[in-house]
Amino acid sequence: MKIRVDDIPESGMELNADSSNTGWLKTVFLDSFGKSGMIEDDSGRLNLQLYKNDKNITVIGGIILKFHPACDRCLAIFAKQQQIPIHQILAPAFFKDGKKAESSTDDEDVSFYEGDEIDIENIVKEQVILAQQMVNRCSEDCKGLCPKCGKSLNKGPCKCKKTTEHDSPFAILKKKKKKNQA
Ligand SMILES: [Zn+2]
Ligand SMILES: [Zn+2]
Question: Which residues surround ligand 2, an ion (CB under 5 A)?
Protein backbone atom coordinates (compact mmCIF):
# COMPACT_ATOMS: atom_id res chain seq x y z
CA MET A 1 0.00 0.00 0.00
CA LYS A 2 1.87 3.02 -1.25
CA ILE A 3 0.74 6.60 -1.39
CA ARG A 4 2.20 9.17 -3.72
CA VAL A 5 3.39 12.19 -1.78
CA ASP A 6 1.93 14.45 -4.46
CA ASP A 7 -1.50 12.91 -3.86
CA ILE A 8 -1.60 14.11 -0.25
CA PRO A 9 -3.44 17.43 -0.23
CA GLU A 10 -2.17 20.35 1.83
CA SER A 11 -5.22 19.98 4.07
CA GLY A 12 -4.25 16.42 4.95
CA MET A 13 -5.69 13.05 4.13
CA GLU A 14 -7.54 10.38 6.08
CA LEU A 15 -6.98 6.71 5.56
CA ASN A 16 -9.37 4.06 6.88
CA ALA A 17 -9.08 0.35 6.32
CA ASP A 18 -10.53 -2.82 7.80
CA SER A 19 -8.64 -6.06 7.41
CA SER A 20 -11.88 -7.98 6.85
CA ASN A 21 -12.26 -6.31 3.47
CA THR A 22 -8.85 -4.84 2.74
CA GLY A 23 -6.39 -7.32 1.28
CA TRP A 24 -3.12 -5.56 2.07
CA LEU A 25 -4.05 -5.01 5.73
CA LYS A 26 -5.02 -8.64 6.12
CA THR A 27 -1.66 -9.59 4.62
CA VAL A 28 0.12 -7.40 7.20
CA PHE A 29 -1.58 -9.28 10.05
CA LEU A 30 -1.00 -12.69 8.47
CA ASP A 31 2.68 -11.84 8.00
CA SER A 32 2.97 -10.62 11.58
CA PHE A 33 1.11 -13.42 13.38
CA GLY A 34 1.51 -16.32 10.97
CA LYS A 35 -1.43 -18.26 9.58
CA SER A 36 -2.02 -20.11 12.85
CA GLY A 37 -2.06 -16.86 14.84
CA MET A 38 -5.08 -15.40 13.08
CA ILE A 39 -8.43 -17.12 13.38
CA GLU A 40 -11.55 -16.40 11.42
CA ASP A 41 -12.99 -13.47 13.34
CA ASP A 42 -9.66 -11.81 14.04
CA SER A 43 -9.39 -8.44 12.41
CA GLY A 44 -7.89 -5.02 12.68
CA ARG A 45 -9.12 -1.55 11.87
CA LEU A 46 -6.74 1.14 10.76
CA ASN A 47 -7.31 4.85 10.99
CA LEU A 48 -4.57 7.22 9.89
CA GLN A 49 -4.24 10.91 9.17
CA LEU A 50 -1.54 12.03 6.80
CA TYR A 51 -0.25 15.59 6.85
CA LYS A 52 2.27 17.15 4.57
CA ASN A 53 4.69 19.81 5.64
CA ASP A 54 6.91 20.66 2.71
CA LYS A 55 8.27 17.17 1.85
CA ASN A 56 7.90 15.78 5.36
CA ILE A 57 4.88 13.59 5.99
CA THR A 58 3.37 13.10 9.42
CA VAL A 59 1.49 9.83 9.85
CA ILE A 60 -0.66 9.72 12.96
CA GLY A 61 -3.42 7.42 14.14
CA GLY A 62 -3.58 3.79 15.11
CA ILE A 63 -4.91 0.30 14.81
CA ILE A 64 -7.52 -1.48 16.88
CA LEU A 65 -6.72 -5.14 16.74
CA LYS A 66 -8.89 -8.06 17.82
CA PHE A 67 -6.96 -11.29 17.86
CA HIS A 68 -6.18 -14.48 19.77
CA PRO A 69 -2.64 -14.69 21.13
CA ALA A 70 -1.32 -17.43 23.41
CA CYS A 71 -0.93 -16.52 27.08
CA ASP A 72 2.74 -16.19 28.00
CA ARG A 73 2.13 -18.01 31.27
CA CYS A 74 -0.34 -20.81 30.64
CA LEU A 75 -0.14 -20.95 26.81
CA ALA A 76 -3.94 -20.86 26.49
CA ILE A 77 -5.31 -19.04 23.45
CA PHE A 78 -7.46 -16.10 24.51
CA ALA A 79 -9.28 -13.16 22.92
CA LYS A 80 -7.46 -9.88 23.16
CA GLN A 81 -8.15 -6.38 21.97
CA GLN A 82 -5.15 -4.18 21.48
CA GLN A 83 -4.75 -0.57 20.51
CA ILE A 84 -1.59 0.20 18.63
CA PRO A 85 -0.79 3.89 18.27
CA ILE A 86 1.06 5.08 15.20
CA HIS A 87 2.98 8.32 15.07
CA GLN A 88 5.71 8.67 12.54
CA ILE A 89 7.35 11.41 10.57
CA LEU A 90 8.65 10.54 7.16
CA ALA A 91 11.31 12.67 5.58
CA PRO A 92 12.63 12.24 2.06
CA ALA A 93 15.89 10.29 2.00
CA PHE A 94 18.58 12.31 0.33
CA PHE A 95 21.55 11.06 -1.58
CA LYS A 96 25.05 12.32 -1.45
CA ASP A 97 27.49 11.13 -4.10
CA GLY A 98 25.11 8.31 -4.91
CA LYS A 99 25.05 7.14 -1.28
CA LYS A 100 22.02 7.30 0.93
CA ALA A 101 22.54 9.83 3.70
CA GLU A 102 19.97 9.14 6.39
CA SER A 103 21.71 10.05 9.57
CA SER A 104 20.82 13.72 9.48
CA THR A 105 18.62 13.20 12.51
CA ASP A 106 18.54 10.84 15.46
CA ASP A 107 14.93 11.44 16.30
CA GLU A 108 13.51 7.93 16.45
CA ASP A 109 10.09 9.03 15.28
CA VAL A 110 11.58 10.04 11.96
CA SER A 111 12.07 7.55 9.19
CA PHE A 112 12.75 8.07 5.52
CA TYR A 113 11.08 7.43 2.21
CA GLU A 114 12.68 7.10 -1.16
CA GLY A 115 11.34 8.49 -4.39
CA ASP A 116 7.90 10.07 -4.41
CA GLU A 117 5.94 7.41 -2.51
CA ILE A 118 5.51 6.44 1.13
CA ASP A 119 4.90 2.81 2.07
CA ILE A 120 2.01 2.70 4.53
CA GLU A 121 2.03 -1.09 4.60
CA ASN A 122 5.58 -1.14 5.94
CA ILE A 123 4.85 1.41 8.66
CA VAL A 124 1.79 -0.52 9.84
CA LYS A 125 3.61 -3.85 9.79
CA GLU A 126 6.50 -2.45 11.81
CA GLN A 127 4.17 -1.16 14.52
CA VAL A 128 2.12 -4.38 14.66
CA ILE A 129 5.25 -6.50 15.10
CA LEU A 130 6.63 -4.10 17.70
CA ALA A 131 3.39 -4.22 19.68
CA GLN A 132 3.59 -8.02 19.87
CA GLN A 133 6.63 -7.77 22.09
CA MET A 134 4.28 -6.78 24.88
CA VAL A 135 3.19 -9.28 27.49
CA ASN A 136 0.17 -11.41 26.61
CA ARG A 137 -1.60 -12.64 29.69
CA CYS A 138 -5.03 -14.36 29.61
CA SER A 139 -5.96 -12.74 32.93
CA GLU A 140 -4.35 -10.62 35.62
CA ASP A 141 -4.12 -13.57 37.99
CA CYS A 142 -3.22 -16.33 35.54
CA LYS A 143 -1.64 -19.12 37.60
CA GLY A 144 0.44 -20.49 34.75
CA LEU A 145 1.53 -24.07 34.26
CA CYS A 146 2.82 -26.51 36.84
CA PRO A 147 6.59 -26.67 36.27
CA LYS A 148 6.54 -30.41 36.97
CA CYS A 149 3.58 -31.84 35.03
CA GLY A 150 2.73 -28.92 32.75
CA LYS A 151 -0.94 -28.81 33.70
CA SER A 152 -2.60 -25.41 33.57
CA LEU A 153 -3.20 -24.44 37.21
CA ASN A 154 -6.08 -22.19 36.11
CA LYS A 155 -8.08 -25.41 35.74
CA GLY A 156 -7.44 -26.44 39.32
CA PRO A 157 -4.52 -27.96 41.22
CA CYS A 158 -2.55 -30.80 39.69
CA LYS A 159 -1.55 -34.05 41.37
CA CYS A 160 2.05 -33.07 41.94
CA LYS A 161 3.22 -32.81 45.53
CA LYS A 162 2.41 -29.37 46.71
CA THR A 163 5.31 -27.11 47.49
CA THR A 164 5.09 -26.68 51.21
CA GLU A 165 5.84 -23.44 52.92
CA HIS A 166 9.02 -25.18 53.97
CA ASP A 167 10.41 -25.26 50.44
CA SER A 168 9.39 -21.78 49.40
CA PRO A 169 12.15 -19.22 49.14
CA PHE A 170 10.27 -17.02 51.60
CA ALA A 171 10.35 -19.72 54.26
CA ILE A 172 14.09 -20.00 53.83
CA LEU A 173 14.40 -16.25 54.19
CA LYS A 174 12.30 -16.37 57.34
CA LYS A 175 14.54 -19.06 58.80
CA LYS A 176 17.66 -17.06 58.03
CA LYS A 177 16.16 -14.04 59.65
CA LYS A 178 15.44 -16.00 62.80
CA LYS A 179 18.98 -17.33 62.88
CA ASN A 180 20.39 -13.86 62.55
CA GLN A 181 18.21 -12.58 65.33
CA ALA A 182 19.22 -15.40 67.67
ZN1 LIG B 1 -2.79 -17.63 31.15
ZN1 LIG C 1 1.88 -30.61 38.46
Answer: 146, 148-149, 158, 160
